[in-house]
């Protein structure tokens, strides 16, 4: 029930997938919300703190997920066309790359003042300024990469829906619940 097999993703892999998706959508929505907050808005300081905390936890989750993916087998692809299998691998690789880029650039924004970054008051992650203008460069990268990530996620979801409704295969069902 814990390790993937040739036919199905198992519970840990599925949990990693959907927790990552929840984190990405939460952070993107919160990010859109907080950029328009006024100084006297009660969420002016709370929203960024929440965004940073969730982002740092998502980074830990994604690193764990990458380790899990590297040490586990994957089910046999259901796509019969070679170009679809190649496209799926490419999209997954780019999704992971852009997701890590968003998370690392977010850290660089928060760390630019050199102060530790609290994570829900549970613990703190050290902050460090690596170069002058770090916050501005990382902010630009963060914004562009976040929008790119959402576009890739939409493309990924459309691919899953295509498999479900057009190809009528079990690709989407594999990621919803372990199959027996």
End-to-end C-alpha gap? 9 Å
Q: Report Rg.
A: 18 Å
What characterizes the major β-sheet? 2 strands, antiparallel
**Overall geometric form:** elongated
Number of domains: 1
| CATH architectural label | Up-down Bundle
* Oligomeric category: single chain
Low-confidence stretches: none
In CATH terms, the superfamily is: Transmembrane di-heme cytochromes, Chain C
Count of strand segments: 2
Chain-averaged pLDDT: 93
Give the amount of beta strand, in percent: under 5%
What is the CATH domain class? Answer: Mainly Alpha
Give me the strand/helix succession. HHHEEHH
How much helix, percentage-wise, in residues? 55-70%
The tally of helices reads 5
Characterization of the model:
The protein has one domain: Up-down Bundle (Fumarate Reductase Cytochrome B subunit). Helices cover 67% and strands 3% of the residues. It has five helices and two strands; from the N terminus they run H-H-H-E-E-H-H. The chain has a two-stranded antiparallel sheet. Helix 1 runs antiparallel to helix 2 and helix 2 (43-71) packs across helix 3 (82-111). The protein is elongated, with a radius of gyration of 18 Å. The mean pLDDT is 93.
Set down the secondary structure blueprint.
Layout: H1 11-34, H2 43-71, H3 82-111, E1 117-119, E2 123-125, H4 134-167, H5 171-174
Antiparallel strand pairs: 1-2
Helix pairs in contact: 1-2, 2-3, 3-4
């Amino acid at each position: 029930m814990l390790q993937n097999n040739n036919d199905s993703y198992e519970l840990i892999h599925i949990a990693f997938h959907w927790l990552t998706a929840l984190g990405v959508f939460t952070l993107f929505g919160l990010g859109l919300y907080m950029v328009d907050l006024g100084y006297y808005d009660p969420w002016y300081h709370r929203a960024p703190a929440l965004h940073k905390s969730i982002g740092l936890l998502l980074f830990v989750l994604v690193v764990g997920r990458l380790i899990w993916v590297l040490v586990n087998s994957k089910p046999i692809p259901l796509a019969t066309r070679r170009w679809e299998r190649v496209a799926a691998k490419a999209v997954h690789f780019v999704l992971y790359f852009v997701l890590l880029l968003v998370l690392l650039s977010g850290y660089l924004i928060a760390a630019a003042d050199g102060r530790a970054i609290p994570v829900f008051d549970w613990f703190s992650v050290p902050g460090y300024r690596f170069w002058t203008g770090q916050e501005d460069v990382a902010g630009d990268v963060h914004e562009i990469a976040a929008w790119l990530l959402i576009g890739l996620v939409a493309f990924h979801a459309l691919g899953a829906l295509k498999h479900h409704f057009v190809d009528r295969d079990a690709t989407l069902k594999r990621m919803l619940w372990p199959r027996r």
